[in-house]
UniProtKB/TrEMBL annotation:
Transmembrane segments annotated in the record for this chain: none
SUPFAM superfamilies according to UniProt: Rhodanese/Cell cycle control phosphatase (SSF52821)
Matches recorded under Pfam families: Rhodanese (PF00581)
Domain Rhodanese: 116-205, 231-324
Top-rank taxon, per record: Archaea
UniProt name for this protein: Rhodanese domain protein
InterPro entries in UniProt: Rhodanese-like_dom, Rhodanese-like_dom_sf, Thiosulfate_sulfurtransferase
PROSITE patterns listed in its UniProt record: RHODANESE_3 (PS50206)
Keywords attached to this entry: Repeat
Length: 324
């Protein structure tokens, strides 16, 4: 437990720069222009953390979150036995087959604006902004767990995420949050509304309400890079901002891969194109991706994990804080 808390403490400061940008830079995302600026809460949300730490993170003293059995004792939690959705993405045809089977996944619509047309029947509302505080910071693990539980999601659910704007980054950012919370079976639906409509998936004009559940996270702090690891030179650093922003100022040694370069239509470019884009990266070295915008950074992060890279997110704002 002590080692896990120490690891989480190392990312405490950087987490203050993690969230509002998930909505920024895309009018349909509801955020307008903004920066990626998130929480200071990680070490205060694990069982056994101090009241002082909880208070400093904006939580009431004693508000400690339960963690998966085994994590607090330094043992590995029992793996989820449901591996039907273990890939990072799912096609519309694959989803249709799942919906027609005996084990229906939870389907979450994560954009912050209504869809133009119909939703996938049975979809629940999980707007990305519901995971973010009013000040733009990412909610605490405790708060995130309550939001997910209230939406009817538990940590053992098969979860499919979709939205109305892939390039806004809502889907990939929520996917990153779910993986950060330790969610095992979660996937982003590939393609556009036209793609899944063409498969004959049942549709509805509205979304569904489900019974509340309990969500117990198993945090994975390694998915968030901190200043020390970025400055160490041990990571390959990817700046996912536009070339003009990169040219104005960037982390020393960073490689510029504008997030728009990995997108084609309503999804990512194919494996061959992504391999060419990532040609300067080394698969045997971990990668940290940063921007001012969490949604944009998460798109490149997501493309990297699909290509088999060991990738994490970082934030430009945290780097600037350490330079001042």
């Amino acid at each position: 437990m002590r080692s896990k808390l120490a690891m989480l403490e190392s990312v405490l400061i950087v987490m203050i720069a993690l969230a509002s940008g998930a909505q920024a830079g895309c009018s349909s995302c509801g955020g307008g222009e903004g920066v990626w600026d998130g929480p200071t809460w990680i070490e205060a949300t694990l069982s056994g953390s101090s009241d002082e730490a909880a208070t400093s993170s904006g939580m009431e003293a004693g508000a400690v979150l339960e963690v998966k059995a085994g994590a607090e004792e330094g043992t590995e939690a029992e793996p989820d036995t449901n591996d039907e959705i273990c890939a990072p993405s799912i096609t519309a045809e694959e989803l249709r087959e799942r919906l027609e089977g005996d084990s229906r996944p939870v389907i979450a619509y994560v954009s912050n604006t209504p869809i133009r047309g119909s939703y996938i029947e049975g979809s629940i509302a999980l707007p990305s902004k519901s995971l973010i505080r009013a000040d733009g910071s990412l909610k605490s693990i405790d708060e995130l767990a309550r939001v997910l539980g209230k939406a009817g999601i538990s940590e053992g659910e098969d979860l499919v995420i979709y939205g109305n704007c892939f390039s806004c980054g809502d889907a990939t950012f929520v996917y990153w949050i779910m993986k950060y919370l330790g969610h095992q079976n979660v996937a982003v639906l590939r393609g556009s509304q036209q793609d899944w409509s063409a498969t004959g998936i049942s549709q509805s004009r509205g979304m569904s309400a489900t019974a509340e559940d309990v969500y117990i996270p198993d945090p994975r702090p390694e998915l968030l890079a901190d200043y020390k690891s970025v400055a160490s030179g041990d990571l390959v650093i990817v700046d996912a901002r536009a070339p003009d922003q990169f040219g104005a100022s960037h982390i020393d040694g960073a490689i510029n891969i504008d997030y728009n370069r990995v997108i084609e239509g309503f999804w990512l470019k194919d494996d061959s194109a992504l391999s060419e884009i990532f040609v300067d990266l080394k698969e045997d070295r971990p990668v940290a991706v940063y921007t001012k915008n969490g949604g944009q950074a998460s798109i490149v992060w997501y493309a990297l994990i699909l290509q088999g890279y060991d990738a994490s997110l970082y934030t430009w704002n945290d780097w600037l804080r350490h330079q001042s």
